[in-house]
Input
Amino acid sequence: MFRKIFYRPQTGVCADFIPFYDEGEFKLYFLRDYRDWDKHGEGTPWQLTVTKDLINFTDEVEVISRGTKEEQDLYVFTGCVNKIDGTYHIFYTGHNPHLRRQGKPEQAVMHAVSKDGVNFTKIPEDTFFAPFDKYEMHDWRDPFIWFDKEKGHYVMLLAARTKKGPAIRKGCTAVCVSKDLKNWKVTGNILEPRAFFTHECPDYFEIGEWKYIIYSEFSDRCITRYKMSKDGVTWLTPKVDNFDGRAYYAAKSACNGKNRYLFGWIPTKKDSDHAHWDWGGDLAIHEIIQGKDGTLYTKIPLSIKESFTKTYLDAKEIVLGTATTDEVKKLINREIDEYYLECEIEIDENLTGVGFLLNFDELADRGYGYTINLHNNLFAFDVYPNQPWNLTNFINVHRPIELKRKYKLQLIVEKNVAVAYLDDKYALSTRMYPLATPTFNLGLVVKNGVAKFKNLVIKTR
Output
């Protein structure tokens, strides 16, 4: 058992999480990428860590092993977990790029069962592929199932691509049904917006009168989004349909009977802000809340917030800024790099931006910033200040927000990983790779105006 805000296995990284709440604990199944073929070989197994409070995690154990290069499931990719009549069922994606070169399907839906949720037995005869007359043969993945009580059958959602359509925009969410979990019939598509390459990691749940489908946009944007419906036929896209920014992907949800949480991963880079985001990284957990109109928002889980118990700073009010310049104020030197912050921010009508600086090097005049941009109505993360003719890859690490004069901001930092929450509605995750040694780890920044930071509290663990 070990304590972490952003869980990561002891070696390698974690990718897609498949959360399942069972017997008072969250069983977090996930894809393990060792990133070391010489030592661990090719492919990804499914592993499991368990948590009751979202901050203390058991050591990971393997639950579904990889197949060989000749077998369908060299890569054991995303799926779902269900417990039915005392038996755990995992439906997962069997992925093998070597099979494509032989003219065989790269992906298939596969099935495994267990009595304890840890030791699973594969059932090869239950494997099934995309119908090649309607769907592309190599995209048939990420099964998610639930039981439809009204119709008396199981429903499976799948990330797929139609045979016909615009070359890049054939992505759809296919539907299969079954009475016995062994024989599946494809009935059509529940989502086919002609918008994305495909919709990965589908997830379905209901809250009150609303039904929701979560999916992750497989593109250079890599955004986890959702659609909502009352009748299960017409699926609406809310004005703000993403849960986080570019640095949070493949999120799926689970509910403990009271609260629903979202489990996604914050990607790594090749040790540089200039690099592309990788596949896999560290777990980040948001709590999902429902607005009065059915739209969904995210906030910090209470157990994570309350795990920070030692007060480092408690300031009733800090006033900063001038009408014509950027003003910076240091809050934390270098003595702590794991902390929780919360405050209220009040701004004047002329201010153009306000936020917090992280890992700042005063000599190089370089660091990072979570800022509320009042010109563009964005809550964003990027380097600060803008670097001369130097590209850093934080494209799309932002959220659209409402223009107001008062905001609530919360921030969690653990080493080089951070998540900020604005107004208990918008989450924004990121990762930092400082090129120099910071002279301070946290500060304030105010642009062209005056801001009041009220009830500013910083806590450590």
